[in-house]
Task: structure prediction
Amino acid sequence: MAPPVPEVRRIHDYLWEIPKSGGMRVPGRIYADEKLMQAIRGDQSLQQVANVAHLPGIVGYSIAMPDIHWGYGFPIGGVAATDPAAGGVVSPGGVGYDINCGVRLATIDVPAADVQAKIQDVVVQLFKHVPCGVGSEGAIWKLSRKEIDDLSRKGARWALEKGLGTHADIECTEEEGCIRGADPEVVSDRAKERGAMQVGTLGSGNHFLEIQIVEEVYLPEAADAFGVHEGGVTMLVHCGSRGYGYQVCDDYIRVMNRAMAKYGIVVPDRQLCCAPVDSDEGREYLAAMACAANYAWANRQVILRNAEKALMKALGVSPRDLNLRMVYDVCHNICKFETHTVNGGSKQLCIHRKGATRAAPAVDAFIPDRYRDVGQPILIPGDMGTYSFLCVGTPRALEETWGSTCHGAGRVMSRSEAIRRGKGRSIVDELKAKGVTIMAKGYRTIVEEMPDAYKDVADVVEVMERAGVSKKVARLRPIGVIKG
Amino acid sequence: MNRERRYEPLPHTADLGVRVRGRDLPELFANAAYGLSDNLVDLESVRPVEERRIEAGGDDLEDLLVRWLGEVLFLFERDAFVACEFGVVVDCARRDAPSTVRATLRGERVDPARHRLYSEIKAVTYHGLMVAEEPAGWRAEVIFDL
Result:
């Protein structure tokens, strides 16, 4: 029998609270409107929000974003901060299997009409240069053990050293594409073996690479600062740490399961397995997680520059004329140490974001100089046929959500249901009629990933806008997509 | 056993779950591996022309199932080898104690020209994991992260 849905009370139109009860150490807070709350109540994610509130050392609230849905232990679309100095824990489930699954946005200077006219070639070339899906091998080469260890220490900078990027790319990446403290010694051989063959590949499921047109600009000043203008062409990449990261998560779920009894930690759901940040297991997980996060940044960097080659080929332009420029790269599955204000004082906290994106405001030390007056760009991908959003962080995000916002749309329909609904339909043709050209490797990918299977990302982004946590800067419409 | 009856999909919004049955543990484990593999590549197009041997150990019976499927997945990822036949031996004296599984897999290397490819599977999870004895043998449920 499913556990009862926890009691929820409304704080304001876009914020709800699960009051502390039982073993909860803090309340739960959910950003949602009335309509999204109906869906949220239906899938046990509220219980998961309440479960996360049981974690030792959790500070503030167990936070949930409007795209929240049920996940392993932690819901997807959740943020939880723990205080390492107060026995706070770290949990691999609070990051997810796809460590540093994230999004990268870049602009190109070729006119939209030219890209549109050649979109079929563009998609074909992207499909060739960025391997995706089952059985895809690395887009560069199979790395040796030494090379992959090097990559995991350097992150995006590793790609630069191989001639696959510029310093500007690195500046415009969260954490400059590298989290410190990565230690390949605590990563298993199996994770390295999986990752060694996959550098430059996209993966499958909801990962994608898209060419888009900037359809509408909401905040012109911010858009200008980010280098984005209405009618311009952009490229969005959504993928993570591949088999390297999945294996790190897998390995450390086992380590943490065994460690729980040792530290006397009791949680309502076994999948909230965790260990104190200040413990051998905690430290090792964080060092391994950093390696995986760095792998993902190196991977997105390689993909960006390989996609550049594809675009040059399809459009028949030089790198100079293409002028591919990064807007930003964000992660949405991560655990980071950040300094935040707690009860008037500064504290270093361990922030878990699983299906949530950092949302730093103007002046924040973590964002590139060129964006300092505006705030951090936030990239929110939609599903494969609709739109994505570029947003910006606000001071309120720092006050309420540890500087975090939503990450995307979230599924509402199972894959088998999507396959049923897709019978007799050609989703490819439906997308073509909407102006989207798509190529996918997996036989069922396009139908499984149909737009109907997802929440409307516009609803999700709107809630965070109205809650004052993040602001829309631009809406991006896809014209060409590749998927695994 | 015909293909349709070797596993059933479990309803799950974001990922993929399978329910399998077996008259004994080897059949249960074989059907679980079949369910995993048939969601990577359409097994109807796979021929049992090459053999591989793999093994796994687990802390208990449920853990063993997850580890076993993890080995099948790893073989697929590392060697692009997909199996349609599984000769399984399970060494499990007590379900709550460490146990092992050894198997001979028969299949072939993935060939995009002949095989229908589906979606990658990131991991075999512990979520909703269940291995239970029934009057007719065993039943298990496992969810894969997609």
